[in-house]
Amino acid sequence: MNGITLQPLAQERLEAAGQWWARLQEPDISPEDVSEWLEWIEAEPENRHAYQRIQELSQRLRATGEQRSNARRRGMRMKWQAAALVLLSVAAFAFWRMHPEAPAATMAFSTPVAGSGQAPLPDGSKVSLGGATSIEAVYSDASRDIRLKEGEAFFEVQHERSDRAFVVQSGSIAIRAVGTAFNVRKTGERVTVTVTEGKVQVARLDGSTPIFDGVASEEDRALIVAGQQATYDPASNRLSVVMRGQDAQRALAWREQQLEFADDPLDTVIANINRYSSRHIEVRNVDLHQHTYTGTFQPSRLDEWLIAIERSFPVEIHTSNDAVVIESRK
Amino acid sequence: MPNSSDPTSALQDSAASPQAGAGEDRARLIEQLFRDHNRALITFLVTRLDSEAEARDVAQEAYVRLLQLERPDAIGFHRAYLFRIAANLAMDRLRHRSVRAKAPTRELFAEWFQRRSPEQEALDAAEQVTLKHALTELPEKMREALTRHFLTGESVATIAAEWGLTDRMVRYYLARALAHCRARLDEEGTSS
Lengths: 330, 192
What we know:
The complex is a heterodimer.
Chain A: H1 6-23, H2 31-43, H3 45-72, H4 78-98, E1 104-110, E2 117-120, E3 126-129, E4 134-140, E5 143-156, E6 165-170, E7 173-177, E8 181-187, E9 190-197, E10 199-206, E11 209-210, E12 221-225, E13 228-233, E14 238-243, E15 259-265, H5 266-273, E16 280-284, E17 292-297, H6 302-312, E18 315-319, E19 323-328
Parallel strand pairs in A: 5-6, 16-19
Antiparallel strand pairs in A: 1-4, 2-3, 3-5, 4-5, 5-8, 6-7, 7-10, 8-9, 9-13, 10-11, 10-12, 13-14, 15-17, 18-19
Chain B: H1 8-15, H2 21-49, H3 52-68, H4 79-101, H5 106-115, H6 125-136, H7 140-151, H8 156-163, H9 167-188
């Protein structure tokens, strides 16, 4: 705006509105002050407008501050997490828009134990995060790279005409998708990929490069389709694929506040539950990896679940208000 | 009255009661007050409560109190009196709120989400960039007051005590900073 005469006038009016805004907040504002303000705000529509613009800005600044502090806060409940996630993506966009020439936009999202939330990605893809989950997204002209550092996330990938690859890296494997939906769960170095829609390619990493192309064995690379599940087992350093059919949807049960396990090692099961349970489960002097568990877990029914575990496996379980210890049965 | 719920409906109910003459006059006077000043009253309450929904609640309650007032003299229907009642009700709410804020519950969060109206949305990324720049143009105290009060959530009293200033002075800084940032955001055209 150059040389428009209304501008300084608007500025003055805003200044006046600001001063009124300050006076109106005096706890012991006098009736005379209120009357004076009424005369002012009702005198001209521009006064009212200026006042409302100031007030609106004060509210939006507060909302901005609240979002920022929520993003930093930990241990809060679901809805807060959603807000925090939105904010984190907003912060990432700021970077992106400020530097349009920059080669890539980086976004980071995370949730605390027992939290969850959704994060929109710039291409319209959506990612839902489970408890204690942390991901990073790097978008460039050539690719959409996601890194699932820990936890569990469900990706709904937006297909793009340019066929810009959507690649999720997690532990020792990478998953490449085009217009599809899939869940990735990382527990320690064990990674499980479940496809609910379309298909994805899963490949082990050779150093930091996924073996998507070229010659590779079935244990290094697999094409999995809706209903299938691929698991990377760090002990054997290989991928195995199983057909889950309709059961594939159960991998998404965490989004409905429950966890589903199918032939998972019990230590993996406990590690996953710890991402959703308010009470941390500690495993002492017992190797749970040799036992497998199939079934459902609901965070609100931890105690019942523990009783069932104690009955089914050679373990003793001690519980207190804020902790659970699993030990070898003596 | 595009900016308000309609408390006159409640007023008409009362006016329709068999209380006759004086009651009807009173209802008419209050209706007049509502027509002339309701927008300003809501604005006034939003400034004090920082919540659109609560402002409307309080405004409605203020009209009802006015209607139930024992003294039938005209002074009761002066707009200053309406604003006084509303300010007192708002103050009660603020006290009540600070007690609740010390014991956060999920219900409180839920309420927080419901309370969110479009004008309370956080600044978008482009606006935040403009804001950041606008802040650099301000004297240090004003910049700091705005950041600490709105973004960090520190109370005016806290900031004033630390700086050895009156609350009023801190509010003055905030007002100046707001006016400046508002002007800059408008110039950029990044804010609708």
